[in-house]
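Self-study notes.
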Amino acid sequence: MLKTVSAGDSAARYSEEEWQTRVDLAAAYRLVALFKWDDLVFTHITARVPGSHEHFLINPYGMMFEEITASSLVKIDMAGNKVEDSPWPVNPAGFTIHSAVHAARHDIQCVMHTHTLNGIAVSAQKGGLLPISQQSIFVLGDLGYHDYEGVALRDDEKPRLVHDLGHASYLMLRNHGLLTVGRTTAEAFQRMYLFETSCAIQLRAQAGGELIPIAQGIIDTAQEQSRVATKGQGANLVWPGLLRRLDRADPSYKT
């Protein structure tokens, strides 16, 4: 049985900034479970501890995503070693990918990786993500691809992964899944929603008739369209509502 602790007792152990990061990251894990993007315990979302380039938060390996709380997240260093007491281990394959991205991209706080059926199916298609939906246009102008090299356990894969991501916000891991990055956890989550939805739409469309591609000129202006559509708020427009949804279902992610 998971230990129940009060939010106040847990929060007192950390700075205000780190606690907020923990709450947002725990919320992201719960939302991944809610949207059914989880793969048992085998994918990961990481967040940089505020003010640090060396410490990160990751899921306790073996805990289901709907069980994760702010206080249960494990703090690790760049090598994946725990830097504070936790009864839970860390998945080495999980942090191979995440450590490479965090080390190369100091502009981002959060890295999200999923193994969804839709994402893996499209990642196995030679043509990758197609420009056939409104959702896809926001992804395609900011998307990289990384070829499959087996389970991500080897450090020598890191330079190739970092090269393939470059300055993009979305990375399709061939035959493997999807990855997004964000300046905040909210931003990484919203990007994953667009990525996953684009893949789901593509698979359904491919089951029908001839596809209608979207012109490159429209894709080239997608980021400006996004800023106008969200009134410049980006992920901050939807994140509070997502948290309210979690609060109505089970607010224990905050503990």
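Second protein, same conventions, sequence then structure:
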Amino acid sequence: MLEKPFIIEAIVILPDHLHCIWQLPQGDSDFSSRWREIKKRVSRDLDRQTNHRNERQVWQRRFWEHQIRDEIDWQNHLDYIHFNPVKHGLVQQVKDWPWSSFHKFFAKGWYPNDWGYPLPDIVKQMEFE
């Protein structure tokens, strides 16, 4: 197998989708092969039922990528990712969603424990989905 390294800087896993920020090696923008490998490896342990295209139903067919432009763009996306469980009505506060890198950033002192309540102005303006 061809190895395609990457670092997950931030992630939130929701019942029907996920968001993440990846750091790829310099000059590498091959998101597709990485998603393909992730889907293959995770799918091995899931229900084997497929659709008419021989795809497992757990995955959507496409993904959306965005090249982070600068530190402000990175912070905005980080905030959006971490606020997503509240946005979708899964929890009342960001800190209450266990499948989020928010807890890692909180432990580093980057966010206060009550971040996201009330809704941050920057998040109000974002529509990335």
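Instructor comment on the second fold: The first strand starts at residue 7 and ends at 13.
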